[in-house]
Amino acid sequence: MQNLEWVRTFRPLGALVERLWPHFPRRIDGRLATLTRPADNLLSRLRGDEEIEGGTDLKVLEMSVPDFLTHAPRFIAHYAVRPLWSEDELGWLVSLAAQNTKFGAFTICAIEDRSGAVIGRFVYYAAPGRTAHVLNILSLPGQEVGVLCAMFRHLERTGHVEARGRAQPALMAGLGLQRRLVFRHRAFAMALIRVPEVNDAVVRGDIYVGGLAGEDWSRLMHDFG
After folding, report:
1. If you average pLDDT over residues 154-174, what whole number do you get?
2. Which of 4, 45, 104, 224 has the fewest C-beta atoms under 10 angstroms from its C-beta?
């Protein structure tokens, strides 16, 4: 699972133009992006696309960095193998991730249920009209499907052409419900572990690995080449 990247497309023509941007002269790539919006809207109506199902009673709100640093660790506490973030360490990681502006504005969102309780949160680079790159998805156990649906609805409504993120075992049920979502091989992951209890947890998928615990946010990975 950790080797896979998911890609959820909202506006197919807009996503195609973004992939082809490096081959277009700078003066026309913006015009093409503008022209694809009505075409994508028409295509959606012709295909009879429905709005993203599930999570309609959930609310997505932008979250401050201090609130995220305080509460994020409890959202991964149920994993047997997980980062042991201190507030200082997580703050350092977040500050580094925020420096990478190539993919958009570093953004943290919380997801609340009808009672106002936070059941999930996600971290991504916001880039309306382009691709949203999702670094981390945190959810309380059993709330993953609703959290994913609320996240995708938010990213679509804020004008992104598609969203990308890393697959995780706990997210597969919710990802499998999404229309126009594909998985792509992203990298090779290998674990060499001498502790039997940790090895068993990794084998059964009881492990949390996200962008702030790995390399997806790193400027060294994306600012060059």
Report:
1. 92
2. 224
